[in-house]
Design a protein that fits this description.
The chain has about 400 residues and is mainly beta. It is about 0% helix and about 40% strand. The chain is globular and about 50 Å long.
């Protein structure tokens, strides 16, 4: 069979562990083509894909990156010594490093099944600082232990981020048992630096990992660390999506009604809680996102409402025009504008906001035009991670 098509993806920013997937481990400040390897067709996919795949989601840990395509393939690059990039990711053997400098195809084997079932097609993913969360449809003969979906965790989680119990702080293909509950499916997954939340098909949401700042709801604060999936209670609406900051979580409900709630960030140093707007002010919002210390609302009129930390210019500057799409990283953001140009603002010390930052490495109070690569393509999306940035093209 011919190789499966790969996306047209460019990256720039922090790259000390090869997390940009551009073939080396040097930071770059201009969009650079990503390198994909091991793009063989999946044996679990029955239809041959003729069109170019689209990037559905980019999730970034501290030193690794995951790319989910719309056909279910996942590719990973970056630090991989503990297996957080998946068993099929290719390390750069000449470097003596445990990192993958190119995007390799992710696959996991469920060793708990007698058949040793391999999964290489996924429906959702998330990344903590040192771990990966992958969601797949069960392929066991029994339909799996949880209603048709299975959740795998890979990498390191010293504070419960793996959700595998108190004795498990590292895993290469850990399967969370009896989750999700029977009959329910995973709608979405999100993660902060040290916690994970998963939205289920009945509108409930579960979480695990660090909880002492209230990021998993008030009912779990006392536990400080939640080591297995726990129900987040008290949400006044049916949850449809979630995003995570460093120590807080935003749960979304009916966008037309403006439903959302912010959990966590106790102490509220950066005004995450006190700055929360009324639901009336965000009715009909398109999407919510979060940096480590800020919340961003992409409004129906294409404007961006945001609040939180702004000492490095992280919040949208006054000259941000109507944005077709917004991507929020740890302390910076990118916007795809109506004319298909891309701008960035915030902390850009590693080149993740493009060249020409100020003396402190910031793009503060203005939008910085990102120089796009030459070529016959159209920019269709943007992504952002931990001081990393992404241009998705077609």
């Amino acid at each position: 069979m011919p190789p499966a098509p790969i996306p047209n993806l460019f990256a720039f920013g922090s790259n000390g562990s090869g997390q940009l997937g551009i073939g080396h481990d040097e930071d770059v400040s201009v969009p650079t083509p990503c390198v994909f390897t091991d793009h063989t067709p999946s044996p679990t996919q029955t239809q041959t894909q003729t069109r170019d795949p689209r990037v559905s989601r980019i999730a970034a840990g501290g030193n690794h990156t995951l790319v989910l395509l719309d056909d279910g393939r996942v590719y990973a690059a970056g630090m991989n010594g503990d297996g957080r990039c998946g068993v099929n990711s290719n390390s750069d053997s000449n470097s003596g490093s445990s990192s993958s400098f190119r995007f390799g195809r992710v696959a996991v084997v469920d060793e708990g099944e007698s058949e040793g079932i391999m999964y290489d097609v996924f429906t959702a993913l998330a990344a903590t600082w040192e771990a990966t969360v992958l969601v797949a449809c069960s392929r066991s003969h029994e339909g799996g232990s949880g209603g048709g979906d299975v959740v795998f965790v890979l990498g390191t989680g010293m504070k419960g981020e793996l959700g595998l119990g108190a004795d498990k702080t590292q895993a290469r293909a850990g399967k969370i048992r009896d989750f999700p509950p029977r009959g329910l499916r995973v709608v979405s997954a999100a993660a902060g630096m040290g916690h994970v939340v998963v939205v289920l098909s009945d509108g409930t949401v579960y979480g695990w990992g660090a909880s002492r700042k209230g990021q998993l709801g008030g009912g779990l604060v006392g536990e400080k660390i939640v080591r297995e999936p726990g129900l987040i209670e008290g949400v006044p609406f049916r949850v449809t999506d979630a995003v995570c900051g460093r120590e807080f979580t935003v749960l979304c409900g009916d966008r037309e009604k403006g439903e959302f709630v912010v959990l966590g960030s106790l102490g509220d140093k950066w005004g995450i809680l006190v700055g929360t707007p009324a639901t009336e002010d965000v009715k009909g919002y398109l999407k919510m996102d979060a940096s480590w210390h800020g919340v961003y609302v992409h409004q129906k009129d294409m404007s961006v409402l945001a609040w939180g930390r702004n000492d490095r210019g992280q919040l949208p500057p006054a000259d941000l025009r109507s944005a077709k799409e917004v991507a929020v990283g740890s302390e910076h953001a990118l916007a795809l504008l109506e004319d298909r140009s891309v701008v960035a603002f915030g902390w850009g010390e590693h080149g993740n906001c493009g060249p020409n930052t100020d003396a402190q490495g910031n793009i503060k109070g203005i939008c910085n035009q990102v120089p796009l690569p030459e070529g016959d393509f159209e920019v269709i999306g943007v992504g952002a991670g931990c001081a990393t940035s992404w241009i998705i093209a077609s």
